[in-house]
Amino acid sequence: ATLTVKDNTGANSSNIASVEIKAETAPDLVVSALTASNNQAKQGDKVTFTATIKNQGQASAAASKTEFLLDGATVLGLVDTPALAPGASATVSVNWLTASAKKGQHTIKATADKTNVVPESNEANNTKTITVSIQGNKT
């Protein structure tokens, strides 16, 4: 790069210098998939939710916690997620016993690194949400 300096009289001086810019590398945890064992469960069924947590960043991610949240209010589980190398994935699961669930649509949100222990390149892409339906009583 060339640096040119001009003083208040109009005289200038130039010099050439090399500048090296290195991109900072960091992990980036995302929920790449979120599935339910039964999207049309009956009250009383057990539904297993499985999230795939992927490190799409350029550095290793330390162990963290993944949260499964029901209807924006009830934590179904805060699950240990192992350390992940760049490009690596892990699956984590939680069970929901639906005996006391209301009939109708319910949302489940999985959040990677819920406790924010991993400094990521993008903290805004850590969640995925799905909807499941609870039918009438199990017969």
Describe what is shown at a glance:
This protein has no helices and ten strands. With 139 residues, the chain is mostly beta strands. The chain has one domain: Immunoglobulin-like (Sandwich), CATH 2.60.40.
Chart the SSEs and their pairings.
Blueprint: E1 2-6, E2 12-16, E3 29-36, E4 40-43, E5 46-55, E6 64-70, E7 74-81, E8 89-97, E9 104-111, E10 127-137
Parallel strand pairs: 4-10
Antiparallel strand pairs: 1-2, 3-5, 5-8, 6-7, 6-9, 9-10
Give a description of the structure.
A hairpin with a 3-residue loop joins strand 6 and strand 7. The chain has strands at 2-6, 12-16, 29-36, 40-43, 46-55, 64-70, 74-81, 89-97, 104-111, 127-137. The chain is built from no helices and ten strands. It has one domain (29-137): Immunoglobulin-like. With 139 residues, it is an all-beta fold. The mean pLDDT is 92. Strands 4-10-9-6-7 form a five-stranded mixed β-sheet, with no helix packed on it.
Uncertain segments of ≥5 residues (pLDDT<50)?
Answer: none
Which percent range describes the beta-strand content?
over 45%
In CATH's first tier, which class applies? Mainly Beta
Q: Count of helices? A: 0
